[in-house]
């Protein structure tokens, strides 16, 4: 993790891939996959990041930070893409934020407010 915190993403990825090769515990693997997703997010590789967040959640469905990051990516994609599909991306972001909030009530206040403002919070 020190390579990642120092911004040496290539080295960090190598370390995480090696950790994935050695680690057998699904819970621990979920955090490794999550961290790989973080690096891809930092590099602007959002499709790859989403893939790793999904893989992390398959092993550990109690990672609110993964749901949050997926929602942020969806929300960001709206600003970059076609306005016709924007509503679908907003809906997907809303679903991820709802899951993050359900896992950690009281966190993600800005997301909670966005859900209320856009009338997506039930």
From TrEMBL:
Q: Does the keyword Membrane apply?
A: no
**Is the keyword Repeat assigned to this protein?**
yes
InterPro entries the UniProt entry points to: TPR-like_helical_dom_sf (IPR011990), TPR_rpt (IPR019734), Ycf3/AcsC/BcsC/TPR_MFPF (IPR051685)
User: What keyword terms does UniProt attach to this protein?
Assistant: Repeat, TPR repeat
The record's section on Pfam families has: TPR_1
What ranges cover the TPR repeats? Answer: 30-63
Q: Which NCBIfam families match?
A: PRK02603.1 (NF002725)
Name the record gives this protein: Photosystem I assembly protein Ycf3
Q: What is the scientific name of the source organism? A: Deinandra increscens subsp. villosa
